[in-house]
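Below is how a single chain appears once it has passed through the pipeline. First comes the sequence as given, then the structure the pipeline wrote out for it. We keep one example in the README because the format questions we get most often are answered faster by looking than by reading.
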Amino acid sequence: MKWFNRIIIFLTGVAVCLAVVLLVGNDDAVKVQEVRPVVRAMTVSPDAPMRVVFCGETVDLTRYNRHESMDRELSSFTYFHSTTMLLIKRANRYFPVIEPILKANGVPDDFKYLAVIESNLDPRAVSPSRARGMWQFMEGTAKDYKLVITPTVDERYNVVRSTEAACKYLKDAYAKYGDWKMVAASYNAGMGRISSENEKQGNVDALDLWLVEETSRYLYRIFAIKQIFENPYKYGFVLSARNLYKPIVCDEVSVSEDIPDLTAFAAKYNLTLADLKRFNPWLKDTKLVTDKRRFILLIPRSGELNYDNPDNVAVHDKRWTVN
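Resulting structure:
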């Protein structure tokens, strides 16, 4: 009986100790939760780099205004999830077209990122100021650089032709400034404005010019989207090959005679008018008046129009995918 009583006393003591421990532990847990509450998700600030490379030049970003400007644009692109992810998907289709044209014209490859921020790589983009196409040409500038604009044609929407015209502009600007950062700024603001402000402000670096907000942000937006494209996983973008938009192989059909009915023309290639215009967005009407000019129509191959095996989509830049 004495042993039984001792066991009861022992168990009672253990129970009291456990109760005290649990009470203290629960109190500590409440205190921790008050200091650092449990959250469903976290928003983590991306680390802005201290320097970036643009067109072969290392650009120092340690000065307060440069660091904070870069941080703003990098944060914006990082957390503008759907749009930024869409840019990478579209780049898989359009960078293989843009890059060789830049190279052939002696324009640094980094200017493909200018097209990204200008139009979101949408060949049919139209701005509030009525700039159009992937390179966002205004009508007057487009005509200056030999892009055809008529009632049935607008070559600002032609990816190849507008990229070639953009190269001419960029080379003209480089001949004027001898600095690719200044060239990029002039693409947004115009050479006249950049030259005038640079003269007023003492011929400073393009990043040190006091300009309207849109132009002040412009170069940093290029820097930021380049950082994300070169390491998307670092900034939280996880894609596989099946997520990217595949390049669609097309045949080229040269025409120099009018096409009175583009619907009938498309039908000859087993396409709808909509299909024809998606691959040739520079066609403005249901007919084509050539005025004896020569145009190249892209005709997608029938076997290219389906995602029969998405895992086999060709990946243009292996850094974009995790597999």
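The mean pLDDT is 91.

See the next section for the split statistics.
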